[in-house]
Amino acid sequence: MRIAIAGCGGMGRVHAGEFAQMPGVELVGVCDIEYHLAEELAAKTGASAFASYEEMMSAVKPDVVSLALPSYLHKEYACRSARLGVHVICEKPIALTAEDAREAMAVCKEHGVELFLGHVVRFFPEYVQIKEAVNAGTLGQMGVVHLKRVGSHPGTVREWYNDEAKSGGVIVDLMIHDIDFALWTLGEPKSVYTLRRTWAGSDYALITLVFHNGAVANLEGYWGDPGSFRTSAEFAGSGGIIRTDSEKSRSVIIRKSAQNAEGQRFAEIPESPSLHSPYYLELEHFITCLREHREPAVTPEDACRALIVANAARESAVTGQAVHFGHDFVREGQQ
Amino acid sequence: MKKQVKVGMISFAHGHAFSYLEGLSKLPQAVVAGIAHPVRSEVEEALQQTGAAYYADYHDLLRTDIDAVIICSENVHHAQLTLDAARAGKHIMCEKPLGLSVAEMEEMISVCAEAGVQLMTAFPCRYLSAVVRAREAVINGEIGEIVAIKGTNRGTMPGGWFLDPALSGGGALLDHTVHVMDLMNWLMPNSKVAEVYAYANRIFHEDIQVEDAGMMHVKFDNGVFGVIDTSWSRSKSFPTWGDVTLEIVGTAGTISVDSMAQHNEWFIDKDGKGQYHFWGDSMDHLLVKSFIEALAENQPVPINGVDGLRSAEVALAGYQSVASGQPVKL
């Protein structure tokens, strides 16, 4: 299977690295409008580098394209790839509005190509374990859930993240991971309420989702946290509690006795190594689904629902009111 | 030489009475003179330890020459006991929540003021050393201005009268909003909660009449917002009773507080589960100490009735929000 990657920023490099070590696939092309990024990635992976998407698609004729582009380009390039008859793996969010998401889904369907969405949290083993325990009923009736995801502001590296109209901010770009996970584990939401503030280089939000099954989840998301990137989750139900915390699962800590310019006498590098990264598991799953014509663990509909909830959360932050849903993610008062 | 403070304990319905009593026993300037509790057998050990006189009727205790009372009754009795103690000229430390309506708490505060006695609300979490250190960092400007605070006060279902709304006034939302709410108020003494949004439900325990899950959201008049998980969500197998955590987000940094992180991990076969045993400073002891010292030195108590009101009114407003599904203004 021939793979091409559009966008050679952080996520494009991750996808390329995983595809390069995956049996049965060939990374044939990478493109970026910043051509030197494509060249660097091509040199590492053996793929061909291109300065434009069009050039790459006509030259390498991939079976699948990975869209690791800024969020505001997801819909357009998903549709363009579909029209070329190329299957699409698209980073989250699927789009910035539900309308655009539905358009991308419709165009892919019309052209008979698959659309896979990179909601990678569904492939993190610590989160999968929680999902399985919830499904197995180990936790009983689900009660109170906390999900946390904080790290530095990506806008310090890539300018487009700073424009809410292009990225959707911390809620649509980062917290959508936990929104999707909450929907996956707890079902349909009944209401969404958000507290949020953005200030110099920072975007912080607390989202509370109440579910039709009575459970409540509070999601904390922060772009601009001064510490290392970290996530945590706690699921409490009538049958018990499961928690996970990235800070507490560092299975290797390498301490180096380096003397550096800042007078720091040692360096401490905690890691949590695995045979395969969650990104590998995700991309391999998508390729398997293509080969075996299986439904993926995360469908475009799932991605669209997470986006609907994320945008409702943004709206709640602005209005100060809770947004209420009936069933099937239909807003109350709307049909 | 500092003056001795004679203390009467009114009601041991709330288990904190026992740890306050232990705190008092370590204070040379405090004397436990009397214990009033309707069932003598429940306080027999305390009577033996302290040599205090027993009173089946608290009115009789109030007629003695004690200086102060510590009230650990069911929530519904806080107001009447406080009013009676104040009118008898006794200083008061009352267990939280201070009262079950804004009107009764306002009356408690004003009657104490008229009687010239001090009213302290028992918020021991102000004496958690991790919280004290975090507040110091906030005051020093180490994280800039506060933007938001996410807190948890998750606990174990307390059972007993806590589950009878006629005695408790509410479940987990009331029981566990007030501690962390007070800490938020304490971190920002010049701001007040302006708006409240809350969710409450009964999920973790069958056949109880009050909610055991709660999520409280607040907006302060200075723009800061916060959320508190108030749930009695700790399972029987959980290694400790619960927690008090704070994530304080500032414009120039963040502070994470896990007050109970100072624990050893115990894995004892006969206990049937792993357990955390806390080894940090005793907040209950420090709370009682601050009450007694304030009285002995004729200083204002560090946590007063207004502080109690400011936290409890948030919890009470929370129930209105639960009913409406939307935020309510305070």
Index terms:
heterodimer; A: 335 residues; alpha/beta; Rossmann fold; Dihydrodipicolinate Reductase, domain 2; six-stranded parallel beta sheet; 10 helices; 36% helix; B: 330 residues; 2 domains; seven-stranded mixed beta sheet
Chain-wise SSE layout:
The complex is a heterodimer of chains A (335) and B (330).
Chain A: E1 2-6, H1 10-20, E2 26-31, H2 35-45, E3 48-50, H3 53-60, E4 64-67, H4 74-83, E5 87-91, H5 98-110, E6 115-118, H6 125-135, E7 142-151, H7 164-167, H8 169-186, E8 189-199, E9 202-211, E10 216-223, E11 230-237, E12 240-245, E13 252-256, E14 267-271, H9 278-292, H10 300-319, E15 323-324
Parallel strand pairs in A: 1-2, 1-4, 2-3, 4-5, 5-6, 7-10
Antiparallel strand pairs in A: 7-11, 8-9, 8-15, 9-10, 11-12, 13-14
Chain B: E1 5-10, H1 16-25, E2 30-36, H2 44-50, E3 53-55, H3 58-62, E4 68-71, H4 78-87, E5 91-95, H5 102-115, E6 119-122, H6 129-139, E7 146-152, H7 165-168, H8 172-187, E8 193-201, E9 213-220, E10 225-229, E11 245-250, E12 253-258, E13 263-267, E14 274-278, H9 283-296, H10 305-324, E15 328-329
Parallel strand pairs in B: 1-2, 1-4, 2-3, 4-5, 5-6, 7-10
Antiparallel strand pairs in B: 7-11, 8-9, 8-15, 9-10, 11-12, 13-14
Helix pairs in contact in B: 1-9, 4-5, 5-10, 8-10
Written account of the structure:
The complex is a heterodimer of chains A (335) and B (330). Chain A is α/β, with parallel strands linked by helices and 335 residues long. Chain A is 36% helix and 27% strand. Chain A has helices at 10-20, 35-45, 53-60, 74-83, 98-110, 125-135, 164-167, 169-186, 278-292, 300-319, and strands at 2-6, 26-31, 48-50, 64-67, 87-91, 115-118, 142-151, 189-199, 202-211, 216-223, 230-237, 240-245, 252-256, 267-271, 323-324. Chain A is globular and about 55 Å long. The termini of chain A are far apart. In chain B, α1 crosses α9 and α4 (78-87) runs parallel beside α5 (102-115). By secondary structure, chain B is an alpha/beta fold. Chains A and B meet through β7, β8, β9 and β10 of A and β7, β8, β9 and β10 of B.
